[in-house]
Design a protein that fits this description.
single chain, 105 residues, mainly beta, two-stranded antiparallel sheet, 50% strand, disordered C terminus
């Protein structure tokens, strides 16, 4: 996922980056909002940025409907027979194999 980072000390400078990791443990804030910790890799971070400076990260997301969530590392292979022109053919379907698609921001 692509992100835009703006730092409070640099009002006119926005930096681009990508989400590196989303942690599965949610945190419930005092106002009831549910949030997740996210690691972000920032492209071309100014050298004058110091540890502890605050800012905002805008995560650009898309909604994909009708998908099945499969836990990381989970993979099933199902085999079944079909008839084609009077001959039995063994078919296989693998579910849960991961393919990483890199998108440019």
């Amino acid at each position: 996922m692509c992100v835009t980072i703006s730092l409070d000390a640099y009002e006119r400078a926005n930096n681009a980056g990508v989400v590196d990791k989303i942690y599965p443990q949610k945190t419930v804030l005092s106002n009831g909002d549910q949030v997740y910790r996210v690691d972000v890799k920032i492209n071309n971070l100014p050298v004058s940025v110091k540890l502890g400076q605050s800012g905002t990260v805008l995560i650009k997301v898309i909604l994909i409907k009708k998908v099945i969530l499969v836990r990381h590392g989970l993979c099933f292979t199902v085999q079944y027979w079909v008839s084609s022109n009077g001959k039995a053919i063994l078919k296989k379907v693998s579910i849960g194999e991961q393919s990483m698609v890199k998108r440019k921001c």
